[in-house]
Amino acid sequence: MIISINPYNNRKIKEYQELTPGEVKSKIENAHIAFRKWKETSFEYRADLMKKAADILQKRSEGYSQLMTAEMGKLLRSGKAEAEKCGWVCSYYAENAEKFLATEDIKTEMSSSFVTFNPLGVVLAVMPWNFPFWQVFRFAAPALMAGNACLLKHASNVPGCALAIEEIFQEAGFPEDIFQTLLIGSRQVSAVIENPHVKAVTLTGSTPTGRAVAAKAGEMIKKCVLELGGNDPYIILEDADIEMAVEKCVISKLINSGQSCIAAKRFIVVDAVRENFEKLFLKKMKNQIIGDPTNPETTIGPMARTDLRDELHEQVIQSINKGTKCLLGGYIPEMGGAFYPATILTDVTNGMPAYDEELFGPVAAIIPAKDENEAIEIANDTIFGLGAAVFTSNIKKGKNIAANLLDAGCCFVNDFVKSDPRLPFGGIKESGFGRELSHYGIKEFVNIKTVCVK
Asked: For the stretch 252-276, what's the b/e string if a residue is b when 16 or more beta carbons lie within 10 angstroms of its beta carbon?
C-alpha cells in the first residue's frame, strides 16, 4: 500500500493500492501506443492542449495548494505560487517549443545538410515530494511538447498530487495514456527502466537514488538526466550590503521550510563582516513563526516526514558534538507533527555534517573565511555543485566570481538561487548532470539527428 500522511498532525489521509508488475507493464505498453500517434501531431495542436493545462493550473491553484499542504506540509501560499509557476512553464513551452525544435540548416559541401529534433518515445520521471507539482511540470511540459510520452513515478508520500497532475493533462484534452502516473514503490523502478518501450529517464532526488537510477540507465544504455542534492554556498564579501544579503539569505534558507535542493545551505562570511552578518541573521531568524502551514502568518511549516526531521536533527547534534556553536534552535519542539525550528550553527568547519552534507531543512551553517579567496575555496570544497550565490557591491567582481570561479550549475549575484523556465537548470559533480528548462531542457529527450543529402 502507498499511504499519504499529513505531516502537520501525522494523520493518515488516504491509502492507495500499489500497481502490480503486470499492471505497470500494461501502462507502459499503452504509453508506447499513445506515443506513436502523439509524435505525429503538430506543435500547434500540442500547444493548444498545453495552454489548456496552464489555464487549469492557474484557475485551480488554491485547490492544488491545499493538496500540497496536506500531503507534504507546504505553506498554503507557497503551494499556490507553485501551481501558478507550473502554469507558466506550460505556457512557456507551448509558445516556444516549435522554435526550439525547428530544423537547423547547416552549410556543408552536401547539397543539403540539416539537423532535426525527433522525440525519443516513452520517458520515465522519478520525482520528489518537496515541490510535488513544479518538479513534474518542468519535466512534463517540454517532454510532451517535444512529442514524447510521459510516465510519472512520484514520491510515495504525495500520491494525491501525482494523480491530480495526471487529471490535469486528461482534462486539458491530452490523448489517453500519453501522461500516466505509476503508483509504485521504488523497488519497481528498475523494471520500468529495463522495459524496451522506455527510452529515457529523468530523476530529481537524492544522490544515492541518482546513483542507482543512473547505474540502471547506463546498464540499459538509456539517456538520463539527474538533478540531485545540493550544499549551496552563499558568499558574503566585505563590500556586501549586509542588510540586503541577510534578507536574501533568510528567504533562501527557509524556502519550503528549508526543503529545497537550491536553498542556501552554507553561509560563507568573510571575517570583516561576520559579526554584523550573524547579528542581523540571528535577529531575522528569531522572528520566524513555526506552525500551521495553512496560517498565513506561518513562515516555517512542518517537514515532510518525521523521519526526515529526525535525520536533520541528528546532523545538527553531530555537528555540535564536533565543535560547532548553536546560536538558535537545534532541538525537536514539543508539538505534534514533523516540526523543526529555525536553527543557526556557527563556527562550522570541515568534517562536520553541517559543512560536508546537505542540511535539508531550516538549519543554517555559518562558515568563517578570512578573505575573498578563502571564501571561494570553501564554497567549492564540496561534493555538490547545484547552486551558489555571492554578495558584493562590486558587480564586475561578482560576475567574475559567479561566471568563472564557482563550481556550480546555477550562480547568482546579490540574489538567491531560483529556477526560471527561460533559464537552464541543473548541476555538476554529485548534484547531477543534464539540464532542465530553457531550450536546453527540451533538447535532452530528443534525437538530435543529422540528415545529409548529396
From this structure: bbbbbbbbbbbbbbbbbbbeebbee
Looking up cell 489521509, which residue turns up? 13
Mean pLDDT of 143-157: 98
Same domain flag for 89 and 193: yes
Same domain, residue pair 222 and 240: no
Cell of 451: 540528415
Nearest 5 degrees, angle CA 220-CA 119-CA 137? 90
In which band, very low, low, confident or very high, does the pLDDT at 65 lie, cut at 50, 70 and 90?
very high
Q: Look at the chain and report how many structural domains it folds into.
A: 2
Instruction: Please give the DSSP secondary-structure letter assigned to residue 17.
Output: P
Mind listing the pLDDT tens digit for each residue in 46-58?
A: 999 999 999 999 9
Q: How many CB atoms lie within 10 A of CB 288?
A: 18
Enumerate the active-site residues.
Answer: 227, 261
Asked whether residue 144 falls in the same domain as residue 250, the answer is no
Give the count of beta carbons closer than 10 Å to the beta carbon of residue 454.
7
Closest to 172 measured CA to CA, from 290, 61, 47, 271: 47
Domain match, 321 and 199 both: no
Which neighbouring-strand residues pair with 125? 152, 202
- Measured distance CA(138)–CA(134) in Å, rounded: 6
| Single-letter amino acid, residue 21 | P
Maximum separation of any 2 CA atoms in the chain, in Å: 76
Residue 23 identity (one-letter amino acid) = E
Q: Which residues contact 384 (CB under 8 A, 6 or more apart)?
A: 228, 229, 230, 231, 232, 358, 427, 429, 430, 431
Secondary structure string (H, E, C) spanning 130-183: CCCCHHHHHHHHHHHHCCCEEEEECCCCCHHHHHHHHHHHHHCCCCCCCEEECC
Residue 68 pLDDT level (bands cut at 50, 70, 90): very high
Nearest to 248 by CA among 237, 229, 263: 263
CA 158-161-164 angle, to 5 degrees, is 150
Region class of 347: left (phi > 0), else alpha (psi between -120 and 50), else beta? left
DSSP code at position 387: E
Are 85 and 63 contained in the same domain?
yes
Inter-residue contact 184 to 19 (CB < 8 Å): yes
Q: Could you report the per-residue pLDDT of 416-453, keeping only the tens digit for each?
A: 999 999 999 999 999 999 999 999 999 999 999 999 99
